[in-house]
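Why show two proteins at once? Because comparison is the fastest way to build intuition. When a single record is shown, students tend to memorize it. When two are placed side by side, the eye starts asking what differs. So, the first record is below.
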Amino acid sequence: MLQVIDAQYGGLLTDSASVLVITRSWQRAGGRVLRGGRTFDVRLTRRGARWRVDAVHPSRPGPPAHRLSPLARRVLASHRIDLPPAARSDVESGNVHASVLTAMLAVARAHRIGVSVLRSGHPLFVFGTHRPSDHPQGRAFDTWRIGAHAVVDARTSRQLVTDYMHAVAAAGSYNVGGPYLLGAPPQWFSDDTHHDHVHAGFRS
């Protein structure tokens, strides 16, 4: 059985898009329930008024690390950080930078957060450019839900989202994106791709 947790833009241009579909799955096998899930980078192009799927790239987090850092163990154990399966596997692989783990723990003190994407399943480059994205390098995280409120939901208060964006910046993010522009680049940005989630990138 497959459940879609969230779908967010990985990139949006006039005639092309990346939609990140975050899933969890489970199936019965030999009396056991096997749990898993992946994030899929679905690429689309527009032909006239219709969008067509051109490719689907599944997440590949890599094998679990032999030894995890205390920060990684704290993130995995936190009941205030909701990680979908692919993001959890990213942390378990040991390939998520300490700055990201530290920031998630910091913002989770005030907010229970729903993380959508960490490392795997995200486009390698900032969509439509040749600039490497911070995500595949393990130096970014996206938040689709703050408490019980989806960022994209029109009923979610602007104050909640902007407070969270400021909290992410205070936790060390050099590049905070979301539905609202809160200051000058490069620290702050807003565009059509980020109207449905909050992005936090880290230099190291």
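Second record. Ask yourself what differs from the first in the token line.
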Amino acid sequence: MSLQNKTMKKENFAEDSSVNIICGRNPVIEALKSDSPLDTIYIDGSGGSLNLIRRLAKEKGIVVKDADEKKLSRLSGGASHQGVVAEGACGQYVSLDDILSISREKGTKPFIIICDEIEDPHNLGAIIRTAETAGADGVIIPKRRSASLNATVFKTSAGAASYVPVARVSNLASCIDTLKDNGVWIYGTDASGTDYCDTDLTGSVALVIGSEGFGISKLIQQKCDFMIKLPMAGKINSLNASVAAGIFMYETVRQRRK
């Protein structure tokens, strides 16, 4: 069993009702498969993937209750639920040490994503989804001025939030210092940097993705070992944060496979 599925040192979610709800068939299925802590699953209807959810829940001893559309809409806060809502934590935060230990366990060089004040939960969810498919060891977010692992993040990640370890740290700059002490090179992403294709990303890598409106903060820029950028040939001079993150992640994957 990989470290991601073992019991790690956890930090509770912020006390917000939205973090205790998972909406949608695929996110709920992935939460069940990954043993995320669920209390009750509310379902409207049967057949197909809803029957699969019922079966998985029964196997894991999780309570399933029938609910109508009105009940599910209230639980989901109006979000698209596809006939199923799960109540319980979407997942749990891990420590920075947990993320660092993953590469040691796999025998690979660290590959970590740092989100510097990504406030849009859709962007954070998309980044987590890509991080999972790219094989990143984990994602780091700050406690302040950042989206948290709420229901929107979980749903946007298409269930990937069940598998990708996420650490939420009180001091991002101090966290970066710890990564450096562990031999990880910090790569900031900014238009002032070097072309990403001309940058060696084969070593121990932490990619810093800046906020949607302001990019990487000045303090975090100062902590970066390198700054890298994407070439812009059109009239628009920036990309959505999650799209840019995906390109940088897969360039790292491409170089590591050479």
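One difference worth noting in the second protein: The two ends are 28 Å apart (CA to CA).
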